[in-house]
Amino acid sequence: MVNINFFEKKKKNITPWVITGTALILSGLLVFYFSWMTSQIREDITINERQIEQQQAVVIELQRVNLIGDQVNQLKRDAETLQANKYPAKALYDEMIDQIPNLSDTLINQFIFSITGNVQLQLALPSEADVVSLQRQLLDLPYVTNVVLETIEVTGEAATYDTRFSIMIDRLSLSEVLSRDL
């Protein structure tokens, strides 16, 4: 007997099925990878946002500390400037008082100085000659630019001369003179 095969069996080509299956598996892996990466990036963003929130408090505190540090430095500079520019009141007072003739007979009523370089000196001097002498001696001081006798009154039985002087001071000259004396 002869075998006649009306349906020829051909070998099936599975290559398209393998390629399609591989493409589907790779596509599935890519979708899974991209979704996993997206979730990882979202988690990283959430973690970073939390860290930013935590660090904002630290940054604000550091800014506050820096501001305080800047203020302290500014205050130090201001204090040094004030120290350099201040009037040495005790030394100025002593210098002015040393100029008074007959100091034992003189009553010092008032000694006021201002930052503008003006000194108000109110005294009770025993004689008219002492008033003139004091005015000249004050004018002879290297840091005195002007002396004005504002008032003079004769008071009491002892005939004391109540006087008020307005004295203008050159601050730079005063600083130089007093720094030499120290």
From TrEMBL:
<protein>
    <recommendedName>
        <fullName>Tfp pilus assembly protein PilN</fullName>
    </recommendedName>
</protein>
<feature type="transmembrane region" description="Helical">
    <location>
        <begin position="14"/>
        <end position="36"/>
    </location>
</feature>
<keyword id="KW-0812">Transmembrane</keyword>
<keyword id="KW-1133">Transmembrane helix</keyword>
<keyword id="KW-0472">Membrane</keyword>
